[in-house]
Specification:
The radius of gyration is 27 Å and the shape is globular. 49% of the residues lie in helices and 6% in strands. The strands form two sheets. It has a four-stranded antiparallel beta sheet with strand order 2-1-3-4. It has a two-stranded antiparallel ribbon with strand order 5-6.
């Protein structure tokens, strides 16, 4: 019986394209090279196998000479076009690993002068970690204490309070920019809602296809899954809250984000909120070879005065905003005909999700005032500050924990001296040590 491989290839091609968002069939450099070489994609299958590696190695030369790419830049370009071959399920995709191609890639390094220039360029754009002095100065200028929670809350005061809250959460929790606000990093062309709306026609067609493949999917669920601007942003359902409950055995209970909003509407006071916790679902922590594991929740509690201030600012905002759907972004500001400070400002009924852009603009101003060039400040600085401060502030606690783990391993000879089993499978992470 003759085996027909085409249906299998078509199925594999469709699956890879659906799963690999970065994979696409439009690789500008490769397309330009093919056009300059006088080849076409159909010609590739007609070239004898022994000559194909030469065309691929010449592509490396094209990247090096025509495009001015070097070293890791060439490597990334080769990886992209190799992915293109796999996505199209063409034969000979493995020829990109041919020794001739690898040799050409190995020869694409930088000269000494090019290295100097590259290091100088990187140094001029290096992102510095945010320090506490910067955080305190931003707090002073945004002044979250000036807000008054009422039906006539000033729109500008509310925006600045939410901007400070967003910065505080990013510095303490260390989430990605995409988790924090509807803005992506590194220039994704779908980073803004305007650009996303420009692709509305293609989006509707894709939506119809997904709805056909998943008959049980509701409109709201499909919208949530297909919007890259909001897919990763932190939502109310990603949070949980520990509140006092004297009727419970331990005097407290955990509430989901939506349940917590109900509690606030029913009279829950600030002093009854013990702490809030959040974690961020992301494909980066769900690799293909790993099972889903319980996350270590990031805790926002009452362990210091600044932490209490941040917790209560969030609680006050959630109480003022009122009941929303669990899929709503945590820091989505309702319209409510709010008026700004200016006498000429118009009332706004537009819902707005707080963005980190305004905070970064203020940080750039402060940096320049302190003699730091503007390119050294971006949203990445907040996450670098989070990791650096975590290492400084939690280092001593972690050293004490390590000594405790060593004692647990040694007691009774249950594990070897360097076994990771106690940490991975038996250690209860009872407390999250944030900034």
């Amino acid at each position: 019986m003759e085996f027909d491989s085409r249906p299998t290839k078509d199925l594999l091609k469709a699956w890879i394209k659906e799963r690999d968002a970065k994979g696409g069939s439009i690789i500008q450099e490769w397309t330009e090279y093919v056009e300059q070489s006088g080849l076409s994609f159909t010609d590739l299958s007609q070239i004898c196998t022994t000559n194909k590696p030469y065309h691929m190695a010449l592509y490396v030369r094209f990247l090096f000479i025509e495009k001015g790419l070097r070293a890791e830049q060439v490597g990334r370009a080769i990886a992209k076009v190799k992915g293109l071959f796999w996505n199209e399920v063409w034969p000979d995709a493995n020829l990109w690993d041919h020794p001739l191609v690898e040799r050409a890639v190995g020869l694409s390094g930088r000269t000494n002068q090019e290295q100097r220039d590259d290091i100088a360029r990187k140094a001029s754009n290096e992102k510095f970690n945010m320090v506490m002095d910067m955080f305190v100065e931003v707090r002073s200028r945004l002044d979250p204490h000036k807000i008054r929670w009422s039906d006539v809350t000033c729109r500008d005061d509310l925006d600045e309070a939410l901007q400070y809250l967003l910065l505080a959460l990013m510095l303490d929790v260390g989430m990605r920019v995409g988790n924090a606000s509807p803005t992506t990093i590194r220039g994704n062309e779908k980073a803004t809602r305007d650009a996303w709306k420009a692709e509305e026609k293609e989006r509707r067609e894709e939506k119809a296809r997904r709805m056909a493949l998943n008959p049980g999917l509701t409109e709201d669920e499909e919208e949530e899954q297909s919007d890259p601007v909001l897919t990763h942003i932190m939502r109310m359902k990603d949070w949980r809250f520990c509140v006092e409950n004297h009727q419970a055995a331990d005097g407290w209970e955990m509430r989901t984000g939506e349940e917590f909003l109900d509690d606030l509407e029913n009279g829950l006071t600030n002093d009854m909120v013990i702490y809030a916790q959040v974690w961020f679902p992301t494909t980066k922590t769900a690799k293909k070879t790993k099972a889903t594991t319980m996350p270590i929740w990031a805790t926002l509690g009452r362990r210091s005065e600044p932490e209490i201030e941040i917790l209560l600012l969030m609680v006050n905002f959630l109480r003022w905003r009122g009941k929303v759907d669990g899929n709503s972004p945590l820091l989505a500001r309702p319209g409510r005909s709010l008026k700004g400070r200016s006498a000429h400002s118009h009332r706004s009924n537009k819902t707005k999700t707080t963005s980190i852009d305004s905070v970064i603009a203020l940080c750039k101003v402060i940096a320049v005032e302190q003699g730091v060039p503007e390119p050294h400040m971006s949203a990445i600085c907040i996450r670098k500050g989070h990791v650096t401060l975590m290492r400084i502030l939690a280092g001593q606690d972690h050293q004490e924990e390590e000594r405790g783990l060593e004692a647990a391993r040694a007691r009774g000879g249950k594990w070897t001296a360097h076994s990771e089993m106690p940490r991975k499978h038996y250690l209860a992470e009872l407390d999250d040590k944030g900034v």
